[in-house]
Design goal:
There is one protein chain. The chain is α/β, with parallel strands linked by helices and 296 residues long. The protein has one domain: 4-Layer Sandwich (Metallo-beta-lactamase, Chain A). It is built from ten helices and 16 strands. Strand 8 and strand 9 form a beta hairpin. 46% of the residues are buried.
């Protein structure tokens, strides 16, 4: 059977370099335990893209953005509607922290709720409130942003009923000048390999510098042909809770990353469970791309 043809949901073309005002990009992978919350901040215009609503015990990225950084998301992308990716939905419903726009795939919401853990099923109802409150919006910053995905019905048919929500995750490629970041949501290996089978996806993902590992860095989300098809990233960033035994050790191997300096050490992988929230600052010095990695 031929691999299914993936679609991209939204695409924003890079502007001509003379029209771009952004001179610094900040990437934060928040430490939210079992979940995901990633933010991209384009400076100095402070355009904010938030990806997923993970939250930790007593910590919410939305409040961190608002109260500490005086920012609010211009657009919120939900990779897929599992509870650990919309944990912070109640904060998002609070007008002080509500994103200005939201982007998501449509599902059979009753089916998604039925599959959720009973004690967390109310999150799906809260997310319905958020969808009704916040206008649907695409990314409109100054980088190039592509959200690839399989539609839920297609993911169910191609990859199976039990895993279709994970495998209909957005897989996002964000490119600002010489920096390229790939964010895989909870897409599993079989679906990522299907993306990698297509030249259009390969072209978009080729030369990824930072890979935010899919499915919390688990073996179930590891794409063994990534390096062969699109090249070796410099580093893998992994959002994973403490004591999670399922992180694939290959992410920490020189076979799968080129390494970056982190706290004076060369690292192939940086994880939220070992390093806390991770900040990457990207800019140009004397016309050359430069970055710095640190824990927050």
């Amino acid at each position: 059977m031929p691999a299914p043809f993936p679609r991209f949901l939204s695409r924003s073309k890079s502007k001509p370099i003379e029209a771009i005002s952004v001179n610094q990009l900040e990437l934060i992978v928040y430490d939210v335990g079992h979940g995901l919350s990633v933010v991209l901040i384009e400076r100095p215009n402070n355009y904010v893209t938030l990806i997923d609503l993970g939250a930790g015990s007593g910590f919410t990225p939305l409040k961190d953005l608002s109260l500490k950084r005086h920012l609010k998301p211009d657009v919120l992308y939900i990779t897929h509607p599992h509870a650990d990716h919309i944990t912070d939905v109640e904060t998002a419903l609070d007008g002080r922290f509500t994103p200005l726009g939201i982007n998501y795939q449509n599902y059979d919401w009753a089916d998604v709720k039925r599959r959720e853990k009973p004690e967390l099923a109310y999150k799906i109802d809260s997310f319905a409130e958020l969808r009704n409150k916040v206008p649907y919006r695409d990314y409109n910053g100054e980088a190039e942003f592509v959200a690839w995905r399989f539609e839920p019905s297609d993911a169910k048919k191609r990859f199976g009923d039990n895993s279709y929500v994970n495998n209909s995750s957005y897989f996002m490629i964000y490119t600002w000048q010489d920096f390229k970041i790939a964010i895989g949501g909870d897409m599993e290996s079989v679906a990522i390999e299907s993306l990698l089978a297509h030249s259009k996806f390969q072209s978009t993902a080729n030369g990824t510098d930072i890979l935010i590992a899919s499915h919390h860095g688990h073996k179930s989300g590891f794409a063994s042909s990534w390096v062969e098809k699109v090249g070796k990233p410099y580093v893998n960033l992994i959002s994973v809770q403490e004591r999670d035994p399922h992180v694939d050790s290959r992410y920490s191997s020189p076979a799968f990353a080129r390494s970056v300096n982190f706290g004076g050490e060369q690292r192939y992988a940086i994880t939220t469970r070992a390093d806390g929230s991770i900040l990457v600052t990207m800019s140009y010095v004397a016309g050359k791309p430069t970055w710095a990695f640190k824990s927050l």
